[in-house]
């Protein structure tokens, strides 16, 4: 008579999803991601969207996440109704699913068993028409303050991001001989040095010398009205965005204008003038993947002209 076989011990469960998300967000902080990026992108998608969905579905550990479950997560998001009474846009679904994929990739790198990956919805490719130099000049002509003109030029002539413009201070103008650079702190608080055109450097010097003494010494741009204490508060991101939007309305351009469109226009112009992707990455702070993904609107004529310029320089 054969002996009964012992019942195999159950396989160990994967880590609780709440712990996994918390550890992943701590890892993101340790890598230097900005608090704003963590809160608005990773944190919201994982803590306010993914974990509540898992709790409602009775999913508690990493072992519960097989491919079928993760496909259901994306499907449910596609069917979810937004606060405006419409289905979530593909861009919103994409922004919620992508951090989950990154979480699971990170967990796999730690040696955890990951049974699947949520599928990303395909996003429509939208070509953003860059502003011409003539349109940028129209925007500057619509500004009635030197501050607003300089804000515009830092976007259009230096390719800065919104958070980079609001974070600038007078001490960030760095000189070496006849050259002037801006010391810019970009995403992840990484520093890079952006060349300043000589005329723009002179205008910034004049602006700093003549601005009110009550302006915050560590900020280049301040609000146009004094606060309750008689001082000028630093110009906020929303304040800068409103300035740019208002300039677009006054200049009567045929499309809305925002800081990112100005940066996009600068990058397009730099590529068309022959700046290579490595230089653009160093000066503009954009990854090669972003450059390859978002600047396919450059035409065959641009490539033809760039090749002829390169041949003429031999």
Tell me what the structure shows:
The chain has 314 residues and is mainly alpha-helical. It folds into two domains: 17-109, DNA polymerase, domain 1, CATH 1.10.150; 133-312, hpI Integrase, Chain A, CATH 1.10.443.10. The protein has 13 helices and five strands. The strands form two sheets. A three-stranded antiparallel sheet has the order 1-2-3. Strands 4-5 form a two-stranded antiparallel sheet. A hairpin with a 5-residue loop joins strand 4 (222-226) and strand 5 (232-234). Helix 6 packs antiparallel against helix 8 and helix 6 crosses helix 10. The protein starts with 16 loop residues before the first helix and ends with a helix.
How is this structure best summarized?
The protein contains 13 helices and five strands. It is mainly alpha-helical.
Question: What's the helix and strand layout?
Answer:
Layout: H1 17-30, H2 35-56, H3 67-79, H4 90-109, H5 133-141, H6 146-158, H7 162-166, E1 173-176, E2 179-185, E3 191-195, H8 198-210, E4 222-226, E5 232-234, H9 237-250, H10 259-272, H11 277-284, H12 288-294, H13 300-312
Antiparallel strand pairs: 1-2, 2-3, 4-5
Helix pairs in contact: 1-2, 2-4, 5-6, 6-8, 6-10
Overview features:
2 domains, 3-stranded antiparallel sheet, about 325 residues, mainly alpha, DNA polymerase, domain 1, two-stranded antiparallel sheet, hpI Integrase, Chain A
């Amino acid at each position: 008579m054969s002996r009964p076989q012992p019942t195999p011990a159950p396989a160990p469960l994967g880590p609780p999803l709440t712990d996994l998300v918390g550890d992943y967000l701590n890892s993101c902080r340790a890598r230097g991601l900005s608090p704003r990026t963590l809160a608005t992108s990773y944190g919201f998608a994982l803590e306010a969207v993914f974990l509540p969905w898992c709790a409602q579905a009775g999913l508690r550990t990493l072992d519960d996440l097989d491919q079928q479950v993760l496909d259901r997560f994306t499907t449910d998001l596609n069917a979810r109704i937004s606060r405006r009474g419409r289905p979530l846009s593909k861009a919103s679904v994409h922004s919620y699913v992508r951090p989950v994929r990154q979480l699971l990739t990170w967990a796999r790198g730690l040696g955890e068993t990951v049974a699947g990956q949520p599928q990303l919805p395909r996003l429509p490719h939208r070509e953003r028409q860059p502003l011409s130099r003539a349109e940028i000049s129209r925007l500057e002509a619509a500004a009635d303050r030197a501050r607003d003109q300089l804000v515009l030029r830092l976007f259009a002539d230096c390719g800065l991001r919104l958070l980079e413009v609001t974070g600038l201070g007078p001490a960030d103008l760095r000189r070496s001989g006849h050259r002037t650079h801006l010391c810019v702190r970009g995403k992840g608080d990484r520093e890079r040095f952006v060349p300043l055109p000589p005329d723009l450097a002179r205008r910034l010097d004049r602006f700093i010398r003549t601005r009110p003494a009550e302006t915050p010494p560590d900020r280049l741009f301040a609000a146009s009205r004094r606060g309750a204490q008689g001082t000028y508060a630093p110009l906020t991101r929303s304040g800068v965005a409103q300035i740019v939007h208002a300039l677009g309305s006054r200049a009567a351009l045929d499309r809305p204008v925002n800081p990112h469109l100005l940066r996009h226009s600068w990058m397009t112009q730099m590529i068309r003038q022959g700046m290579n992707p490595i230089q653009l990455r160093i000066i503009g702070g954009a990854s090669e993947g972003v450059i390859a993904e978002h600047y396919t609107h450059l035409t065959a004529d641009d490539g033809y002209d760039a090749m002829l310029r390169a041949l003429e320089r031999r």
